[in-house]
Design a protein that fits this description.
Length: 615
């Protein structure tokens, strides 16, 4: 059916519709609900923290309408970032806990919290002390001692120690690494005679905590002596060590302090950028090096040495030089006679009967006679203090022999002395250059270098020698323990030894790869740059209180005893008898003889004479 629509216009602005089921009102829209926060809850990844630790917290906001989930964070004692990362306070709150709060930014009355327990951290492991008990503390070189370490501390500390020996070559330990507290360690000496050994236990957790115990090792029997040396060219000393244990040559300097100028010296020209160079060989490899001979003056006659150039600084005396004594460099007889320089041409003679060492420089032999530029006598049972400013067969005023590397000691497994070495340039000044103890003389060449005569260097303890042969390890160990003493001008970083047919030349060449940067300078006395001829100490020369003969007139073939009494002397010699010691000597003059006693110390020389008439 068709409907009619009635339109009614009211005031031209009103329109009404009716009929056919159409309502008279327009349908309306329901408004959204008002946003409302109903709850805030907080959860944290960790609910128990130590002071200073952190925990990530999150907030869950519930509500109606289009509410905001944003919150602001806070805590009673700790701190919370705007992302909810909670940091516990540095001290434990009185309550033992902290509340982490999240407050709705839309309704500050709605908040949530989480409780976090706060505890103090466990104390860090701390080593309070290390002790070491060794028993017995005095042993012979054939005995052992037992050392037990004890470690105390707090917390979960490591109760282990590393045990070490100084000097390293003094013996062995049954265990040395990570030794547990209370576990005994056995020390076995090296059976090389008397020694003073330090055994040290060091905490593995804190190297500043350590404890050392001295062990006195005495020789079980009388040690090697002069008389026990074999005779002949380059003969074995059979364990005899020249000079006393307290002399510079035989002093362990492995723990000695570095010289304050170490860095400057080792980085300066004339030291930096060099490498070792061994200065000796096998016979087949060239037979170079510095040879020596051991004699017995009870059978080897004393002969005169004509000292030409440095007689005033020499020990001019008859010496037991065999006519076949080896000369360094093997110059031909009469070549350059009597004193033309043809090389250092050292001759070293050890007298096992009197226990004396004779050394000459620029030595010549011609028609059975000897001449040299200098002659020096050394008492092998003592150590000579030569006058300050005096030279010797070495430029530094030192003995040569005790600084040589010898095959017999390498074969025995230990070099127990320092090694001599040379540098091309040493520090000069207007007074001839500088020297430090144990040197007594300088031969400076250039002011601008830092090397001074007597300077002692050592191979760094950190230098790894494990890749070298056993023989070379003996040499390198000595460089660490006793070091090297600058004794003369020569080629850069050359160190000297004795020629021997048993040397392995190829193996010795492996030493030449070691760079000078692996060495350091031991503290000098006096302080760098040392003395020169004008600043060296001065004092009184020795006093000879008496020098007498048991008879002033004897028949030929009759022995006489010469006796002397001296004060403040370092060493003595008699011009026609050579080196002497002990205050008396017996001799048999064959002709009327005037004997001149020479007493010497670091300040000078005193002489006195006595005559014996032979009729």
């Amino acid at each position: 059916m068709r409907c009619k629509t009635l339109l009614s216009l009211s005031f031209l602005g009103s329109l009404s519709f009716a009929g056919c089921g159409v309502s008279g009102k327009v349908a309306g829209t329901t408004p959204p609900p008002t946003p409302a926060i109903t709850a805030v809850s907080v959860s944290c990844a960790a609910t128990s923290l130590q002071t200073g630790q952190t925990s990530q917290c999150s907030a869950t906001v519930s509500g109606t309408g289009a509410y905001s989930s944003a919150v602001t964070w806070s805590a009673v004692s700790g701190a919370v970032s705007n992302t909810g990362l909670y940091t516990a306070p540095s001290t434990v709150p009185a309550s033992g806990s902290d509340n982490v709060k999240a407050t709705s930014t839309e309704d500050s009355t709605k908040l949530g919290s989480a409780k976090i327990a706060i505890t103090a951290p466990a104390p860090p492991p701390t080593i309070t002390a290390v002790s070491l008990a060794c028993s017995p503390s005095s042993i012979t070189d054939t005995q052992t001692t037992s050392c037990t370490p004890t470690v105390t501390g707090t917390g979960a500390f490591a109760n282990t120690v590393n045990v070490s020996i100084s000097p390293a070559a003094a013996g062995t330990l049954s265990d040395a690494t990570s030794v547990s507290s209370g576990t005994p360690v056995t020390f076995t000496p090296a059976n090389t005679g008397a020694d003073s050994v330090i055994i040290t236990a060091t905490s593995t957790a804190n190297s500043a905590k350590s404890y050392s115990v001295p062990i006195n090792v005495t020789a079980s029997t009388a040690g090697p002596s002069c008389a026990g040396m074999s005779t002949g060219d380059n003969a074995s000393l059979n364990g005899f060590l020249p000079f006393t244990a307290t002399t510079a040559w035989n002093t362990d300097i492995s723990s000695a302090p570095l010289d304050p100028n170490n860095a400057a010296i080792t980085s300066a020209a004339g030291f930096a950028g060099l490498h070792l160079h061994h200065d000796w060989s096998s016979v087949a490899g060239g037979n170079y090096g510095i040879p020596y001979v051991v004699v017995d003056s009870s059978t080897t006659p004393l002969v005169p040495i004509s000292v030409v150039d440095y007689a005033s600084e020499s020990d001019v005396a008859l010496a037991p030089f065999p006519i076949t004594a080896p000369i360094e460099g093997s110059p031909a007889d009469c070549d350059g006679w009597p004193d033309t320089y043809i090389g250092d041409s050292h001759v070293l003679v050890l007298d096992r009967h009197a226990c004396m060492l004779y050394e000459t420089f620029n030595t010549h032999r011609c028609n059975g006679a000897w001449s040299a530029s200098s002659e020096t006598i050394w008492d092998l049972k003592n150590y000579d203090r030569r006058p300050w400013g005096w030279t010797s067969a070495d430029a530094a005023g030192l003995p040569i022999f005790p600084g040589l590397v010898r095959y017999d000691e390498v074969a025995a497994g230990a070099i127990n002395h320092a090694i001599r070495f040379t540098m091309q340039q040493t520090k000069n000044d207007a007074n001839g250059g500088y020297f430090v103890e144990p040197a007594s003389h300088a031969a400076g060449t250039v002011y601008g270098v830092s090397n001074v005569m007597g300077m002692r260097i050592r191979l760094k303890a950190s230098f790894d020698i494990s890749g070298f042969s056993a023989a070379n390890q003996v040499i390198l160990t000595a460089m660490k323990k006793y070091g090297m003493i600058l004794a003369d001008n020569g080629s850069y970083f050359y160190f000297q030894g004795v020629p021997d047919p048993r040397w392995n030349d190829d193996d010795l060449h492996n030493l030449d790869s070691i760079q000078s940067s692996n060495f350091e300078v031991v503290q000098m006395t006096p302080a760098f740059p040392g003395y020169d001829a004008n600043t060296a100490p001065t004092g009184e020369p020795p006093t000879i209180n008496s020098f007498t003969s048991s008879a002033s007139s004897v028949a030929a073939g009759t022995p006489v005893t010469l006796t002397w009494n001296t004060s403040n002397d370092s060493y003595d010699f008699i011009d026609v008898l050579g080196g002497v010691s002990g205050g008396s000597v017996t001799t048999t003059p064959t002709a009327t003889t005037t004997y001149t006693l020479n007493a010497t110390n670091q300040y000078g020389r005193t002489t006195m004479q006595v005559a014996v008439v032979v009729h």
